[in-house]
Amino acid sequence: MLTFHQVGRRYGLGGPWVLRGVGLALPAGTLARVAGANGTGKSTLLRLAAGIDAPSAGRIEGRPRTAYVPERFPPALPFTAHGYLTHLGRVHGLSRRTARVRAERWLDRFGARAHGETPLAELSKGTVQKVAVAQALLAEPELLVLDEAWTGLDAEARDALDEVVTERVAGGASVLFVDHDPRRLAGAVSAAYEVSGTSLIAAERGTARVRIDAEAPPGTKLPDGLPPEATHERDPSGTVRFTVPAAHSDALLRALLTAAGPWHIHRVRPPAARER
């Protein structure tokens, strides 16, 4: 678990405080959103959580295996997309073979496999962003920090990132994110905060419900361990639509992902979300 104790951050010995007296706890399985106006210190908070910046005051305890997607990813690196991801996998301690396999898997997941041998400097902004997200997932982080990571992605890649986030959380990881779309993962968020002034303020959790569309081979029974609050219905295509209070969505996802039968999760969203 990552914990902030009265953390402050300012730039320069006499500079103004960007954040001050911040307390934050991110236990395993937390999906936490940070909101706030531009320039209030959201990115500074995320950089502190990711270990990129050090606090000027207070302390941060715990250091889970952490990955970070910055607001701006530097594309002018002397690698192809695949070469860059493989190199980072080696830095993370993966074998060359494992690094290559994971690089291909994540590029494919975000629709960028065809660009694997393209130099980073020649990629479009959207494809560079897919590489930025992929590099954060190589080592299966215990804490994933996302600073506007959806910006620049196409609709399919945004959906894929939504799914990856919910999978990581269901598997016990924590995710801390900022996004300009207030609907982003709205029904699945388990903790919400706002940066105001130099403070981090906890927002009250709502009672939103989450819809999870999943599919299994015909005849597959519902998995054990479903939360009792969950309801479900099957449509003619074989998809099962589960609906559950947001507070219990992690338990539902965990039951589906760890079931003996092969359940495939298509989408996670609030029931009222508009089709994209």
TrEMBL record:
SUPFAM superfamilies the UniProt entry points to: P-loop containing nucleoside triphosphate hydrolases
Domain annotation ABC transporter: ranges: 2-222
Membrane as UniProt keyword: no
PROSITE patterns: ABC_TRANSPORTER_2
Chain intervals for the UniProt region annotation (Disordered): 215-239
Presence of keyword Coiled coil: no
MF terms (GO), sorted A to Z: ATP binding; ATP hydrolysis activity
UniProt entry keywords in alphabetical sequence: ATP-binding, Nucleotide-binding, Transport
Name the record gives this protein: ABC transporter ATP-binding protein
